[in-house]
Write a structure and sequence with these properties.
heterodimer, A: mainly alpha, 10 helices, 63% helix, globular, disordered N terminus, B: Rossmann fold, 2 domains, five-stranded antiparallel β-sheet, 11 helices, 32% helix, 25% strand, elongated, disordered C terminus
Chain lengths: 308, 333
């Protein structure tokens, strides 16, 4: 009752319990929100389909390469060792199916389109998809502040990127081990690698690829915050990537290349060399961080001013 | 969960208000959706928000809940300003706005669990129980594990209602809650509103079903073309219409003639005449009739129905009554 006179003018600091009889500010823990978000992501049928596809592709590539080797002109040679001489399979073929190069190669191939597609899809569903189902409103009304909502959504996309990259690398590695055992763990420079070194390099590759995908995801979230059609997000982001790739091929535009995200991709090849040159990888990582910061800022600006 | 119940902001009459707006205005790309709305929702009342489609009901509700930034004006919900302090007040507000929004590939229960996870008033251990209770309350317990995609329109609407009732609320805002419900479902919504009312929860319900509002609400707000044309207690609104006296007589024509001769507006009605008694005492009417030799069998005051009051209110201002069933324009999005 005493709150009557002060309701309108009460300073924010003295609000707790004083006016309107509302208890102090409370909110659901971030962990709870994240758990709900991740559960939702992995209950979505299309997420599961794409992830299954991503896990299957390195297996298909590996088996295809291995069959090429077996079906070649050397019926007696079998999957020869790394030192395969004259009539054994050429060393690069064995290498291509190895537990080192197969996951890296698969990752590089899939980073061109399928992995960005996966992330763009997740980002599209995260905001635009929720908006189109009217469920974004539900979150805002409970309430979840828009900043927290974006954080939860970004973490959700990160989880998808991590899982997708992890699946490709692990699936490629396991396929490689099954097909060629620990043979062929050779760099392009000809040096042999221990299993531990291979794991280390694959870990770096996965982390780098996840960062690259988060750059894509951040831009996708910015688009996602501005539309209610998830398809617009996927088409827009993939279209942008394809245009970028085309632009990187035009040498007259080489001044533009440092600003294009796909310019980072060749850096991944350096992981197959010995010693590894980290220059390209670092430059790519920096580029990804720039895209990440710009994308998330745009997404935040758009989401906080948007009508729910 | 016990929420301390002190009074919210007092209104003009000193009544505590669960929601109040001052000069609320919203312009969408040059189209004025809501203009100068001064809304007052007394605490503990069941307020029916009436208006033709496109009259600004949904836009007003969306601004109340902080979903849409008003172009101008102030909003106070349970005594705190919105949208500035929306995160403080919204946990105490349950809402069903613009139809239910859920994911088709999840079951009703999973959908609710998702929102329950974000409810600040529910502890981690209470989520399951709260979801079950809400489903029970709207009669969906049996279909809880069915995919939302397989729900009928009425079941979807009920699930939306359940999400509004997930946590203990002080204010429940329902936008067209009976849309798509069969008569039994409509009845159930009435029961739920009555239950909330009995527990002292304030309810703001928008509808264009007049009978619905007349049956459930204590207060009414009538919007037309983005402007509040009337608000107050339902009984007051019903009485505010021009009062009429229904006189049963076999001499209807003579009665009309007599009354018009005395400058009392009257017109024939089935079984007699209907007399406008805004400017005349009923007793004077009877007296005039008797003196004029008209046989009066019965005379009684007529209570105006909400439908008539609504038609009068919205007709006077915008002549929009005929568009009651027109589709909601994009403006409301």
């Amino acid at each position: 009752m005493t709150g009557w006179a002060t309701t309108d003018t009460a300073p924010a600091s003295s609000r707790d319990g004083a006016d309107g009889g509302l208890p102090e500010r409370r909110r659901a823990s971030l962990g709870r929100l994240l758990r709900a978000e991740v559960r939702w992501i992995f209950r979505r049928p299309r997420t599961l389909v794409v992830l299954a596809l991503l896990a299957a592709l390195p297996v298909i590539i590996g088996v295809a390469v291995d069959l090429t080797v077996d079906g070649g002109a050397t019926p007696a040679g079998g999957p020869g060792g790394p030192g395969g001489s004259g009539d054994g399979p050429p060393i690069f073929v064995t290498m291509a199916a190895s537990a080192f190069v197969l996951p890296l190669g698969s990752l590089m191939t899939l980073l061109m389109l399928l992995l960005p597609l996966t992330v763009a899809m997740a980002s599209g569903d995260a905001l635009a998809g929720e908006q189109s189902h009217g469920t974004l409103r539900g979150w805002l009304l409970t309430p979840v502040s828009r900043g927290r909502l974006l954080l939860v959504k970004a973490v959700g996309v990160l989880v998808v990127a991590l899982v997708a990259t992890g699946l490709v690398v692990v699936s490629g590695m396991v396929t490689g081990f099954v097909l060629t055992g620990t043979e062929g763990l050779v760099t392009m420079s000809g040096t042999e690698l221990t299993v531990a070194e291979v794991l280390g390099r694959l870990g770096v590759a996965a982390a780098w690829a996840t960062l690259y995908l988060m750059a894509v995801g951040a831009v996708a979230l910015a688009v996602s915050a501005s539309t209610e059609h998830p398809m617009v997000v996927v088409v827009g982001v993939l279209g942008g990537l394809i245009v970028s790739v085309v632009l990187t091929q035009i040498s007259a535009l080489d001044w533009l290349h440092p600003y294009l995200l796909p310019s980072s991709l060749p850096g991944l090849v350096d992981l197959i060399r010995d010693p590894v040159s980290f220059d390209g990888l670092l430059e790519g990582a920096l580029r990804s961080v720039c895209y990440l910061v710009i994308g998330m800022s745009l997404a935040y600006a758009r989401l906080t001013t948007r009508d729910g | 969960m016990a929420v301390p119940r002190t009074e919210a902001a007092p209104g003009a009459a000193g009544v505590a208000l669960a929601a109040r707006t001052r000069g609320l205005r919203k312009v969408y790309r040059g189209t004025v959706a809501v203009d100068g709305v001064d809304l007052e929702v007394p605490e503990g009342a069941v307020v029916g928000m009436l208006g033709p489609n496109g009259s600004g009901k949904t836009t007003t509700i969306r601004m109340l809940l902080g979903l849409v930034q008003p172009t101008e004006g102030e909003i106070e919900l349970l005594g705190v300003p919105v949208p500035q302090a929306a995160d403080r007040v919204l946990p105490h507000v349950g809402a069903l706005v613009e139809g239910p929004g859920f994911h088709p590939f999840l079951s009703g229960r999973e959908n609710l669990l998702r929102f329950a996870a974000a409810e600040p008033l529910l502890r981690a251990g209470e989520l399951d129980g709260a979801v079950s209770a809400a489903l029970e309350r709207v009669g969906l317990a049996g279909a809880a594990r069915k995919k939302y995609r397989a729900y009928s329109l009425g079941m979807k609407q009920r699930l939306g209602l359940a999400s509004a009732l997930l946590a203990p609320r002080r204010l429940v805002v329902l936008d067209e809650p009976t849309n798509g419900l069969d008569p039994a479902g409509t009845q159930e919504v009435r029961r739920i509103i009555a239950e909330l009312h009995a527990r002292g929860v304030t309810v703001l319900v928008s509808s264009h079903l007049l009978a619905e509002v007349e049956a459930t609400c204590t207060h009414v707000v009538v919007l037309n073309a983005g402007v509040v044309v009337a608000q107050g207690a339902l009984a007051d609104l019903l009485e505010s219409g021009s009062p009429t006296l229904l006189v049963t007589t076999p001499d209807a024509d003579a009665a009309v003639e007599t009354l018009r001769g005395r400058r009392i507006p009257a017109r024939p009605a089935p079984g007699g005449v209907r007399v406008d008694v805004t400017a005349t005492e009923p007793a004077a009417v009877i007296d005039a009739l008797v003196r004029g030799g008209v046989r009066v069998e019965e005379a009684r005051r007529e209570r105006t129905g909400l439908e008539e009051a609504f038609a009068r209110l919205t007709h006077d201002v915008g002549e929009l009554v005929g568009e009651l069933d027109a589709d909601e324009p994009e403006v409301a999005r």
